[in-house]
């Protein structure tokens, strides 16, 4: 894996080679990764994995025609062949009026925001193993835990560099750490499984392994002896670890490519009330140590914090250059990028800002409802917003979380669900999409 300066130089030289080969414009993305993961189970080391790799991708433009090619071989000969292949493919590609680089005046110039995404550490496999063993041991020490699916610790580093024929050439480095534990409570047909995870940019921010293990064990134990739930309409409360998926559906619906293809259930609702008044959903690419923080987007445009929903109103779309051209708009700095293919559009660190009531107050007046901690399946129609997913969690009775429930289905329509959503005040920054506990009125519940 190259360091940042060498990665920038390699990307810039490939752009220059593309221009010499006749490209009207070009951009190059380099991504290098190195990661170590240690897995343990039942107190023994189960697996150690180490992966290292690097790839480089070239977009080659001839007028309105373009081609994307990539290689994991960064030798001079391989990159020369890559340019030749890209030129040949671009000559045969269909014309696309939306194709092209990001507007030159929108590119990041000057010093970018320091998002503190790399801690510079490289923990040894022995250190990761010790942490994983501690997490699993803490989970298994809880009375009633009968088996383990294991625990894992991972550590990784990445280098990203982007160069364009507009003269942009920048790179940055990130680190990432993850911990997980998954255990089983009960015996025979009564067994229940649950887990706990945590992912961070800096190792010092990672939860103590004992805390992760205890959380996994306590969650599994609480799921024992599920009861049946009568079918009907009732309030559904989403735990923060699953509630972010609701906002994820909104993010997919406001991405420029979805809007341009007219495959979004929020089509035509820009500027309209889509959540209750007071609701704010914020995207912050500059959050220090954020899981998706970055100084520039996938096309080199400057990033900036923005409210995607303001006082319940949808403020606009997430636009990369191509979707912006298709919609007659300006790009918003939300381009996402992989090595192969053209950019897409997406958000970074997203928060549904907290409400004014506690979690306890949020459920206090619920006579009968559900508290959902796990969602199963992908029963969401992105065009209509129809929503139907398997779920498990706990029954809410007379304002209290009581017995475990499993094998239920919750259904509704996302447009109606968003308008009926109320957030609690317990927001924590633990994920890329963060929400407090949220309550949605009148969802349809089908019991087992």
Task: Give an overview of the whole structure.
Helix 3 runs parallel beside helix 4. The protein folds into 2 domains: 4-220, PmbA/TldD superfamily (PmbA/TldD fold); 226-448, no CATH class. It has a 6-stranded antiparallel β-sheet with strand order 3-2-1-4-5-6. Strands 7-14-15-16-19 form a 5-stranded mixed beta barrel. A 5-stranded mixed β-sheet has the order 10-9-8-13-18, covered by helices on one side. With 448 residues, the chain is α+β, with helices and mostly antiparallel strands. The protein is globular, with a radius of gyration of 24 Å. The longest helix is centred in the first third of the chain and has 17 residues, at 4-20. The model has no long low-confidence stretch (mean pLDDT 96). It has helices spanning 4-20, 76-92, 125-140, 209-222, 240-253, 256-260, 321-327, 359-363, 414-419, and strands at residues 25-41, 44-62, 65-71, 145-164, 169-185, 192-200, 232-238, 281-283, 306-310, 313-314, 335-336, 344-345, 350-352, 368-376, 386-397, 400-413, 421-423, 433-434, 438-446. 44% of the residues are buried. The protein contains 9 helices and 19 strands. Residues 119-224 form the Metalloprotease TldD/E central domain. It holds the Pfam family PmbA_TldD_1st.
């Amino acid at each position: 894996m190259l360091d940042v300066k060498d990665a920038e130089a390699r990307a810039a030289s490939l752009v220059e080679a593309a221009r010499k080969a006749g490209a009207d414009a070009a951009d190059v993305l380099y991504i290098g990764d190195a990661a170590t993961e240690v897995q343990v189970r039942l107190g023994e080391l189960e697996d150690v994995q180490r992966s290292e790799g690097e790839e480089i991708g070239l977009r080659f433009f001839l007028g309105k025609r373009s081609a994307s090619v990539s290689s994991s071989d960064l030798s001079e000969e391989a990159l020369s062949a890559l340019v030749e292949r890209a030129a040949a493919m671009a000559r045969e590609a269909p014309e696309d009026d939306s194709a092209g680089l990001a507007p030159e005046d929108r590119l990041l110039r000057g010093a970018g925001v320091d998002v503190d995404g790399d801690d510079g550490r490289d923990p040894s496999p022995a250190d990761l193993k010790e942490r994983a063993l501690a997490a699993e041991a803490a989970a298994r020490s809880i009375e009633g835990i009968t088996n383990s699916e294991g625990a894992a610790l991972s550590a990784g580093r990445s280098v990203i560099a982007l160069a364009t024929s507009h003269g942009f050439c920048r790179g940055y480095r990130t680190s990432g750490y993850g911990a997980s534990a998954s255990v089983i409570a009960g015996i025979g047909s009564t067994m229940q499984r649950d887990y706990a995870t945590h992912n961070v940019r800096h190792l010092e921010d990672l939860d103590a392994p004992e805390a992760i293990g205890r959380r996994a064990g306590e969650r599994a134990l609480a799921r024992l002896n599920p009861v049946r739930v009568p079918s009907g309409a009732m309030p559904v409360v989403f735990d923060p670890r699953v509630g972010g998926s609701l906002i994820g559906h909104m993010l997919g619906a406001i991405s420029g490519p979805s809007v341009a293809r007219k495959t979004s259930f929020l089509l035509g609702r820009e500027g309209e009330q889509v959540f209750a008044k007071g609701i704010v959903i914020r995207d912050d690419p500059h959050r220090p140590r954020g899981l998706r923080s970055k100084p520039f987007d996938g096309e080199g445009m400057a990033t900036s914090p923005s409210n995607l929903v303001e006082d319940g109103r949808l403020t606009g779309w997430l636009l990369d250059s191509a979707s912006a051209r298709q919609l007659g708009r300006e790009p918003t700095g939300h381009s996402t990028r992989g090595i192969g293919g053209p950019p897409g559009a997406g958000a970074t660190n997203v928060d549904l800002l907290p409400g004014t009531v506690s979690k306890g107050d949020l459920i206090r007046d619920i006579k009968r409802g559900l508290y959902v901690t796990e969602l199963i399946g992908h029963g969401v129609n992105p065009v209509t917003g129809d929503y139907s997913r398997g779920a498990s969690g706990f029954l809410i009775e007379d304002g209290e979380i009581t017995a475990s429930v499993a094998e239920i289905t919750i259904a509704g329509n996302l447009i109606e669900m968003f308008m009926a959503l109320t957030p609690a005040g317990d927001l924590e920054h633990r994920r890329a999409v963060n929400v407090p506990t949220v309550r949605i009125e009148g969802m349809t519940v089908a019991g087992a």
